[in-house]
Design goal:
mainly alpha; 3 helices
Length: about 60
């Protein structure tokens, strides 16, 4: 693999999805932002179809 290929790294897709779900974090305090991020990550974790889609987006074989 190339040294840096974000399109092949499913974690990059998760972070992109998370960033899109955060509307305007500038208006939150840091503790509120951390709580919001944890909540959104748990929401992603509970959606296996979303995770499968993010993995499929890499077009890598899944063993």
């Amino acid at each position: 693999m190339p040294p840096y290929a974000p399109e092949l790294n499913p974690v990059e897709s998760v972070w992109a999805h998370l960033k899109r779900s955060l509307a305007n974090p500038a208006k939150h305090a840091i503790d509120q932002l951390m709580t919001l991020i944890k909540t959104r990550l748990k929401r992603v974790q509970r959606r296996p179809a979303l995770l499968n889609g993010l993995l499929a987006g890499t077009h890598l074989p899944l063993w």
